[in-house]
Structures are given as structure tokens and as C-alpha cells.
Please model this.
Amino acid sequence: MASVRKGEAKALLKQAREAWEAEQWQLSADRYEEVLRYYPDDKPSGIWWFDAALAHKFLRNWDKAFELGKEAAARAPRGEGDPAYWNLGIAATVLREWPVARDAWSGFGITLPEGEGEIVGRFGMACVRLETAGEYEVVWAQRLCPTRARVVSVPVTPGRRFGEIVLHDGAPTGERIVDGQRHSVFDEIMLFEPSDLPTHAATLTVPAPDDLEALVELFAERGFGAEPASSVNLLCKCCSEGSHEQERSVRAGTQQVSLAALTDEVRSLLDTWAGGGPGRAWRDLELVG
Model:
């Protein structure tokens, strides 16, 4: 009986790999799982558990990615950057299984801030490529853990907001270079936590670049965001995935600025800014998202 099962397993593995190459993720996962019912602990089983879990990650079936990912990680060496831990960390984070997520990141080899529960650390700045109904926008974000980041740009894509927390993948798909420092671009997996800060737009008269910087600082002091339209660079998706040098565009003159702030505070903040220097003015404030 065992020899028959091994013959069947060989055929199932072939089907699993062929389905994988064709990006038929559900079929591939099903075939791997059939083999694993008989051979959960064979020498190559760690790879099968990993591929099955990864297929479910691509399908956004997080319960299965979590279940199979735990099996893959249990067969992977700790502290050596094994991707089984990374994928488990993502699935555990989606499900808010914080003890498992913490163990997975540690198993990968990442030092976490001390504590229990949700991971809120400072893992540096990065860029995240948001995807909304087939539209893409790269924004700046502060990484809170290996897979979560808080958006600190004011997105121009409808429905996206400053301050929202997104879940991003681990493999960089491009980079942005600012003052010689390289920042990876990661693809968004999902919106993890929405933001309650609406987006407004206003036309500002800015006598000097320092006046615009003063606006940005004023809004930042309140935990809000302000970003001139001139800082938005339009790139096709292919070009966006390359390496690009960027400079923050801070210039004088009349220009539109996106503002992320509570609606009942945005006017008073603009008035405070306008009264803080000669020649400053604003008009045409509107709610845009």
C-alpha cells in the first residue's frame, strides 16, 4: 500500500508544481495538501508545507495560510532568515495572532521591541505601493513591524488616507533614493487599519519655501499631514518598480496643497498659518476624500 501511495504522491507533486507554474494557486495547494496527508514529515515536506501555505497567501486565504504556515515554520531552521517564518508572520499579523507573529519574526531572525501583543516599533521609513481598484500610488510610510506601516504621505488616490496602516509584502519592488539614502518600495497586501482623518485640498499663496515648510510643521504638530501637489510624480507602473531619485518639492508661489486633518480644525490651522507671516493666504478649501 505504501508503494502505491508513493506513486500517487509523485503524480500529485507533479500536478502541484505544474499548477504552481500556471499560477493556479488553489489547485496547487490542494495537490500539496493531498500529499501531506500521507507524508507530513518526509524530508522534503517542509518545502511542500511552505508552498501550500504560500499558495493560500496568494489567494488571501489567511486561515489556511496560517494553519499550513505553522507547519512549514515548525520544519524550518530558526534565526537563519527562512521565508517560512516570514510568511507565517504575515498570516499571523492579518489574523492578529500576536504571540505567533512575534515568534515568527524572531524565528526569522528579527529583533523585536520587548513586550506582548501587537507589535508597534520603529522599523524605519519605507515606501508602499498602494493598490486601489487597479490604481497604484507609492506613498511614504513609517514601518511599525516587519509587515505593517503607517502612511505618512497624503495619498491622492480616492479612498486612501494619511495615517492609515497597511500590510505590505516583504520583497522590495523598486526603490526611492533621497539625499543618497535608499528606501525600498513594498507592495501593499491589504489595508490593515483605516484612518479617520479626511483629506482636504486648498489653494495657498506661499511667499517663500520656508512658508510651506511652516505649514507642514504646523500640521505635523497636530498629528496631521500637508503635502503640496508638486511633490506628486506620475510614473507608469513599470517605471515605478525601478530605482528613482526624489527631492521634496518645496517652492514658493500659488499652489494646491493636500491636507489631512479633522474637518473642524483644518480652517483654524490654515488661518493660524496665514497669520504667521506676511503674504501668506489660502482659499478654495474643499473636502476631497
Remarks:
- The domain at 199-287 is CATH 3.30.70 (Alpha-Beta Plaits).
- The mean pLDDT is 91.
